[in-house]
Amino acid sequence: MAQAGNQELTDRFIQFYRNYYRDRIGTLAQNYPNEQRSLYVDYNDLYTFDPDLAEDYRSQPEQLQEYAEEALRLYDLPADVSLGQAHVRLTNIQEHIDIRGIRVHDNHVGTLVSVQGIVRKATDVRPKVTEAAFECQRCGTMTYIPQSDGSFQEPHECQGCERQGPFRVNFDQSEFVDSQKLRIQESPEGLRGGETPQSIDVNVEDDITGKVTAGDHVTVVGVLHIEQVKNGQEKSAIFDLYMDGVSIAIEDEEFEDMDITDEDKREIVELSNHDDIYGEMVKSIAPAIYGYEEEKLAMLLQLFSGVTKHLPDGSRIRGDLHMLLIGDPGTGKSQMISYIQNVAPRSVYTSGKGSSSAGLTAAAVRDDFGDGQQWSLEAGALVLADKGIAAVDELDKMRPEDRSAMHEALEQQKISVSKAGINATLKSRCSLLGAANPKYGRFDQYEPIGEQIDLEPALISRFDLIFTVTDQPDPDHDSRLAEHILKTNYAGELNTQRTQLPTSNFSAEEVDEVTEEVAPAIGKDLLRKYIAYSKRNCFPTMTDEAKGVIRDFYVDLRSRGLDEDAPVPVTARQLEALVRLAEASARVRLSDTVDVEDAERATEISRSCLEAIGVDPETGEFDADVVETGTSKTQRDRIKGIKEIIKEVDREYEEEPGAPIDAIVEHASEAGIDEDSVDKELDNLRRKGDVYSPATDQYKVV
Ligand code: ADP
Ligand code: MG
Prior knowledge:
GO terms for molecular function: ATP binding; DNA binding; DNA helicase activity; hydrolase activity. By secondary structure, the protein is α/β, with parallel strands linked by helices. The protein has 23 helices and 26 strands. It is globular, with a radius of gyration of 32 Å.
């Protein structure tokens, strides 16, 4: 740095303020200190004013900030205000450094850097003492000790009587500042192929605390520091990186880190005109997994998603599609959903069991982030996947805390946390792609789905589509599957041998030929760009004909429920799902209108899902109640029946505390309900707390 004197540098800043920030400083002076305590300086302005000064500011931010703040105090203000404690905060440094790319030899340490990412964790805002006043208990003299970030510094002796105390900290005479610690994690769209995201911690103070919350996408300008890692009391040779935050900006829009060139655009538009674009795309989703055309088409539509609608009254209807694959083990579910990460521009892949304390939604946690006493708010997968896709494997194993937060997350697309003084609402505008196993390992096709998975019905009903994946031996299908897996593996073998073994007998052409057969029709880079392009540029609206198709489909399904005793077929939830699916289908073609073909594609998928899951297994009729409440109508009637029977038997056996089981079974069999069903319903009723057992083998309705 040019060795300019202090006075000279301070004068430069005053000159800069006069030229560029006269008005801003005026506003600051009016609002200081309650509403505003900082002057925000755009790096570009400073650079335009004096490139050397700007560069010095970046390389030695701490000293330069002092001069800049000193200049602010000396600046001639209109009224008799003083900006005694005002901060200068630099913003808008154009080059951002990658969190994972920070290396000591790049000489970033001690300099001003800018990073972008998502707030993974944020402590609550707490006062931090900057200067502690120690009152001598012997003579009453006050000794002031400045405090820095390390441990709490106490005076060696009293400044009055020179004895070693005892001292009492006088809080009124001490100075405090609000402080907060944030953990910024690389945003998911920057990550390729399942890399684990890295993060950096940022300390912020005073007026910039409490401004951001977990899940916010931010750009942070701050001073990079290193700090020695401590292992308990032992110091380690390894150092950690952290930042002292200077300014934080919340980014509303996705970072435009996906460059779509004109060349890409031409290719995308050309592709969109292919007759079989849907087929080509379906073949490009998890090509190593055989079959599942319908599931893959649905996943494709999920990637494109419907249009998020903003109504004139300010409310919003989600465009994101949620889907669930429930099925037998070893059927490729995990493989399929993890492939999504390769394609979705912003996605998170995780297991329901959760690897972080925040789990799938969000949590207030108390751990060693912060000072060990402090609560912090941590964002889970659905928040980190905001505006993207959250692929969650083993959804049935999710933690109980997540279950209740999940309803809100999926429908309102936000998550509220209220615990230990932390009250926050986090955004989770993502699509959920879940995979789950049936409760008893394998599927029993003759049981309602709600009974077979460990998710509560209210949650199940939030999914736009639910696919059931069964694994039943079928010689034809099995041999084609075997063929496919063998071919995929063979292509992999050839490719590996060619690259590992110089003496390989296979020619490059031979390898290419086999690889060609199993490669995706559309490469995943292009597919990523295609999807991003469509989501940015395509907001289709529904034609009257398409509306007609959806309406007819819906009315038709509903009409099957008009007969008084028939189960209600579908609810309005499915109707919105159909709209979303049809919109997504239009987006695949980059179409501005949702046409009949889109509506038909949507109704077809929806019908086949409903058929597979919504069918009341005992009557064969559609029954959305199975999906919505986990209990079919037949079953509900039966439950009602059993309850009535228990009451009846109970009245009959007045002298007993409850209704004896033998008598219940006997009555039930007269009503056409067999003993197995009775046992099962009794179990159900007891679990729900509708029935209890006052004595051995006796039951009573609550
Ligand atoms: P799940 O999550 O359903 O239990 P996985 O995704 O772990 O099953 O699949 C188990 C293995 O079987 C994987 O290696 C997968 O590639 C293979 N597999 C299962 N079904 C298929 C299929 N239809 N096509 C190709 N491979 C399959
Ligand atoms: Mg699995």
